[in-house]
Specification:
Blueprint: H1 11-64, E1 74-76, E2 79-86, E3 89-99, E4 105-113, E5 118-128, E6 130-136, E7 141-142, E8 153-160, E9 163-170
Length: 179
């Protein structure tokens, strides 16, 4: 009878296979973790961009609906207030900047129904590095507005995470007496 050598795996071979398998599993796990982190960062950035775009669309449409009423207007680098008619309701809108608990700026919107005297506010964009309004007089952009009339344009400068944005809106006022 011919005797064959044992055809099984040795303990050393099994340990090598297990170590190689663990290394592969670890590498796959690290790759998945990195992919998830990048994916979450991208989702957060897209969400910030969408919120900012929604705010800017609303901001510009409201400025375009502003009515000329100089006694209700207030224009400073940190806050603007004006009246408008939105969905047949006359409102006073205030956009202001507030410092939050993180030391960042929040852009807050305050809405007041002129006739019902109801008011509410909400943060439009949060955790900004800086936010400032500027005003167009027909020739140049000003950081302050001390004139009686409504600016011909209002711009908002937003800075977040080393990204800067300037969004100007040219204003075409509705006469107050047509409301």
């Amino acid at each position: 009878m011919i005797r064959r050598a044992n055809s099984g795996f040795t303990l050393i071979e099994m340990l090598v296979v297990i170590v190689i398998g663990l290394i592969i599993i670890f590498l796959v796990y690290q790759t998945m973790q990195s992919s998830l982190a990048v994916s979450n960062d991208i989702k957060e950035k897209i969400s910030d961009i969408q919120r900012t775009n929604f705010f800017l669309e609303t901001f510009s449409s409201r400025l375009l609906s502003a009515i000329s009423n100089s006694e209700k207007g207030n224009f400073t680098p940190g806050e603007i207030t004006f009246e408008l008619v939105e969905h047949k309701i006359r409102k006073t809108i205030t956009y202001s900047t507030e410092i939050n608990e993180k030391g960042k700026y929040d852009l807050v919107v305050k809405e007041k129904d002129v006739f019902l005297n109801t008011e509410y506010s909400y943060p439009a964009i949060v955790d900004l590095d800086s936010v400032e309004f500027s005003f167009f007089d027909g020739e140049s952009w000003q950081s302050t507005w001390d004139k009686e009339d409504f600016p011909k344009g209002i711009g908002i400068s937003i800075e977040r995470k080393n990204s800067k944005l300037f969004f100007p809106v040219m204003v075409n006022l509705q006469p107050a007496q047509q409301l």
